[in-house]
Amino acid sequence: MHQRIINSPMGLLRVEIIEDRLTRLDLMADPEENYRDEHPLLDETERQICEYFDGKRQEFNLPIHYEGTMFQKEVWAALGSIPYGATCSYKDIASKIKREKAVRAVGQANKRNPLPIVIPCHRVVGKNGSMTGYAGTHINKKELLLNLESRFSNRNS
Description:
By secondary structure, this protein is of the alpha+beta class. It folds into two domains: about 50 residues; about 90 residues, Arc Repressor Mutant, subunit A (Orthogonal Bundle), CATH 1.10.10. Helix content is about 35%, strand content about 15%. The chain has five helices and five strands, in the order βββααβααβα. It is globular and about 45 Å long.
């Protein structure tokens, strides 16, 4: 396992790779250590994250791997189909995976997303367009990401 702490406009991000695949991206409050492992995939991940925050990247092209239930993996795959700068509701995701009554479960899977930003769980909002939890309680970070994408998607269209 290799790790790196990346400074971003939304705070410190810890990225983790195992066997040449990105496996975690965590929002960090105060890391106990400042990981700075050397690995080409960590370099590439940091480059792509910086490009995203600079408005130069709308999709990530990284080898990823995550553990989860089949349901969580269905939800995370559906999240990946939400276009840059767009939003949809938890109900929309439940419908997309053909589990219309699983709206709350979709919310829980969204909350457990191991690769926020890369798998864009921040693009999921409440049915009425309201901001709901991001990575549990970081609604301000969700707003930051949505505002960033809105600004750059409008500029690029």
